[in-house]
Amino acid sequence: MATNEIEKPDTSISSKHSQSPQDNVPQSAPAPAKQVDTSLSSKLVDAKQFILSVAANISSQHLPTYDPNVWGVLTAISNNARKRPQGMNMLLSVDEHWIGRLLEDMSFRIESRLVSTKHCRIYRKRVSNDGAEQSLNCDVSVYLTDISVNETFFNWERLRKNSPELKVQHGDIISFNAPPHHDAELAFAFVYRYALKSAHSVEGACAKRKTDELTCEKKRQKCLGISAPEGPISLDDFRSLQQSNKELRKQLEDQVLAIDKLRNENRATVERHENEIKEIKESVANSYLDQMKEMKILLDVK
Question: What does the record list as coiled-coil region(s) (predicted)?
C-alpha cells in the first residue's frame, strides 16, 4: 500500500538578535582622572612657588633694628602666621628660644591646638671648623631642634621628634601644623633672617644711651640745686623760703581754727533752734489741751 508522504514546510524561523533599549543608549565616557590630578598638582606647585617668592622677597630686605642683642628674626609668610596677635616678627635676642602654644614669653606663642606646649627650640652656639663647641676662633651658627610629636616642617622636610639638630640659614622656611603652602590646613610658616647690625645703628644706639644718661644726671643735679641755670641756691634764698613756708603754715593753721570755730557755732545754732522749736510745740500742745478741757467742762455743765 502506497503511503502518501506529505512534506511539511520548513517552519523554522531564523532567530534574529533583538536589541534592547539599553543597547541604544550611548555609554558615558570615563572621567579624566589624570586631568584632575594634573590640575591639583599644578595648584600645589603654584602655591609653593608663591610661598618661595614671598620668603625670598622678605629675606632680601634689610631688617632695621637698634637692639644690639637681636641676632635674628622669624617673619610670618603664611596667612595664619600673619594673623597672630603678637605680630608678624619673632625677635631672637637670647641664645635660646622656645616656640610653642603655652609659653611665658607671649612673643613666641602660636595659639593652635595642633601646636605643642613646647614645640621646638631655636638656638645659636659657637662651632669651630672641627666641630668642637666653645673653642677659640669659632663661628656662631643657628640650629633648630624639634621635640614635638606634631608636625614641623623645615623647607618642606618634615621633622621627627628628637631628630638631629638642623642648621638654620638665612632664608630658610620653618612651618608648623602643615607644609608652608597649605594655608587651608592652618599652616604657620615663618622665614628666618639674620639681623645685620650696621655701624651706624650701633653708634646711634650708643649715642642715644649716652644722651639719656646725661639727661638723667642733669635732672638729678638740678633737683639738688647744682648746675641749675641760675646757679646754686644761696643761704639767704634758703632762709627766705623757710620763712615763707612758716608763714604759709601759720596761715593754714589759722584757717583751720577758723573753720573749726564756724563749725562749732553752726552746731550751737542748730541745737538752739531745735530747742526753740521743741518749746513752741510743747506750748502749743499745752494750750490746746487746756482749751479742750475747758470745752469739756462747759459741755458737762450744759
Answer: 238-290
Q: What's the Cα-to-Cα distance from 135 to each of 36, 93, 127, 129, 202, rounded to whole Å?
A: 56, 22, 7, 10, 27
Sign of the dihedral defined by the CA atoms of residues 58, 64, 68, 70, in that order:
negative
Q: What is the DSSP string of 9-25?
A: P--PPPPP-PPPHHHHS
Selection from 54, 96, 93 nearest residue 75 by Cα: 54
**257-281: average pLDDT:** 93
Q: Smallest Cα–Cα separation from 197: which of 56, 93, 75, 87?
A: 93
* Same domain, residue pair 226 and 274: no
Contact (CB, 8 A) for 112 and 176? yes
Residues 163 and 65 in one domain: yes
pTM: 0.50
Pick 268 or 10 by higher pLDDT. 268
Question: Residue 282, CB half-sphere, CA atoms under 13 Å: how many?
Answer: 6
49, 193: one domain = yes
- Domain range for 181: 45-197
Distance CA 143, CA 121 (A): 8
Q: Is residue 172 part of a domain?
A: yes
